[in-house]
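<context>
A single protein, sequence plus fold
<sample>
Here is the protein in question:
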Amino acid sequence: MLTVFLLSPASCSGTRAKLLLQSRTSPLTARLANGGAPIGGVFTFMSSLYFRGKLAYANAFGAPPRGWSGALVIAPGRGLMAADVPICLMDLQEMAEVPVDEDEPRYREPLVQHAMALERALGPDGRAVLLGSVATEKYVGPLMDVLGDRLLFPPTFAGRGDMSRGGLLLRCARAGTPLDYVPVRGAVRHGPKPPKLGPAPR
């Protein structure tokens, strides 16, 4: 089945993003200033374990339509970007200026436009799996308006914090064992905090 993963963004205005924008010694900043670096790698630096888990999982289990990536990053003001597309410092600065808010046209409009193109590429049987929070409408609202019941998420995400989700996704990617998915529409999107992950198998 055609499957594309939609990765929620790292904070482009958070502490680690500011470190990148202001650093004079960071190798990643140097890459951003001289030709660019893949957005997936940049967001992994800014979000650490959580984004690293999302990216590893999407790369392990994505089965995209021809011409698409299986790992699409929700990029503020840019819609959906393949995780391996390079960005530069100016791109990061511009994304930091766009609030991740479903009522913000600079965020919503390109996201909806790209979601419409993805919906056509997936055809009647493909699916888009959101690896990100479903507790608010900032991702779910614009995406579900276009993708409807083909927008899925892992129900085990409900109640988990970012670090727990990241660790779970990394573990699944390494084991080659995908999670179950359910449509976002009608799902329980808030839940009790699950038990902590046990030690990873050796």
Q: What stands out?
A: The longest helix spans residues 105-122.
